[in-house]
Amino acid sequence: xxxxxxxxxxxxxxxxxxxxxxxxxxxxxxxxxxxxxxxxxxxxxxxxxxxxxxxxxxxxxxxxxxxxxxxxxxxxxxxxxxxxxxxxxxxxxxxxxxxxxxxxxxxxxxxxxxxxxxxxxxxxxxxxxxxxxxxxxxxxxxxxxxxxxxxxxxxxxxxxxxxxxxxxxxxxxxxxxxxxxxxxxxxxxxxxxxxxxxxxxxxxxxxxxxxxxxxxxxxxxxxxxxxxxxxxxxxxxxxxxxxxxxxxxxxxxxxxxxxxxxxxxxxxxxxxxxxxxxxxxxxxxxxxxxxxxxxxxxxxxxxxxxxxxxxxxxxxxxxxxxxxxxxxxxxxxxxxxxxxxxxxxxxxxxxxxxxxxxxxxxxxxxxxxxxxxxxxxxxxxxxxxxxxxxxxxxxxxxxxxxxxxxxxxxxxxxxxxxxxxxxxxxxxxxxxxxxxxxxxxxxxx
Amino acid sequence: xxxxxxxxxxxxxxxxxxxxxxxxxxxxxxxxxxxxxxxxxxxxxxxxxxxxxxxxxxxxxxxxxxxxxxxxxxxxxxxxxxxxxxxxxxxx
Lengths: 445, 92
Description:
The structure holds two protein chains of two kinds. Chain A is an all-alpha fold. Chain A contains 14 helices and no strands. In chain A, helix 1 (about 15-40) runs antiparallel to helix 2 (about 50-80), helix 1 (about 15-40) packs antiparallel against helix 14 (about 400-445) and helix 2 runs antiparallel to helix 3 (about 90-110). In chain B, strand 1, helix 1 (about 15-25) and strand 2 (about 30-35) form a beta-alpha-beta unit. The radius of gyration of chain B is 12 Å and the shape is globular.
């Protein structure tokens, strides 16, 4: 009998400070985005090219989504695949610091029109992401028998690399570092790879594990999990040159738009299957993360409708169209899913680290480890869900009536981010308390 | 003697809670057969800390089977059935 005894290092899971550092910083960037919307008001929702809009978008994509996704990935690789990220504490310190500096410098650089700050941002973000990608790529490469989740994650990380390279190029062009033609189509390709590549592929591959695991649904159909990520990645590989060819006048706009029907349909299929699986879950209790996920999946359907609306030539040139698509892609789909996952990941990790320590100390019955619901009570998570939904509705309306509603939407986003931060701090505080009790127990023996 | 535990329909962290609970009831010569839908990497270090050995193999009704017994309990180890789902491994 081949016994796996001692074949694994005891520190299989990274220290809790690794993911929590990212999870606790992300709501602060969300709060900065809210402050920006409060201060700049309608200007931030007038056109997607306004400096305040660019700053706001990147505070959400890099500061909120990017940090949580990086932290979660470093945590998930050892849990889901038994493959820890090498030198995880060092990588965490470097990535967290560089990304945080980079996001702040980028937002400030956009707002102040200061090229020096933009250059600092490009260096910090480029460095931070490259360290992250290299470390995660090593862990992903070591996995012997990759499943659909791991294959999806590999493609997502590749999409992140493409997004970062495009972002650095566009940033260098925008800040006058290099002279660059096709700035606008390159920006669209950058955000296509970022949202439909990195964010979308990571959401899909993580869904294959966490939707059946936490929501007790049937498994995703095997054929879907085998093909979807590859199909999406391939579709983006073809869409990007088609789009750039349109940008340089070589092709009619119809070519990339018709091609985009393929990834759009694939995302629609994923959202439809996920909603169907959730409808057929075994334990029919309502759950906050489930509601966040459902919001995200419905948002994908709304994005498809908004995108189809944009195919009407006269509509696509209205400034409201890309803003509306941005609101639903970012806040509707990405923020909903990522925010919702925190309500599973954070209490689970706090519980797990306390439980592990209790097992190591043999302190069962002496120190009570709180369960997940005690770490973040449902009513607190629910309150934040309502604030998030209110923000989504207010942002949608503010796209059409920015003068009246932009600042109210900013206020709502601020409330949602403060509640999220308080909920994360609540779990952290409870973790520290019980960890202290365990330390006292260890000292008293 | 075999103690069977199916945790495939449970939401985390219940599988881990049930497994740790079940390990407390194992007598000499007993092993725990866990049916799980995925490989529970996080619990292995706990097995080690608690003085248990384990063997994981893909297959079974849930996707994975994990056998756990007390370290140095040769009798329990010898009782573990050969795999019905994957190529049988040579016994130690």
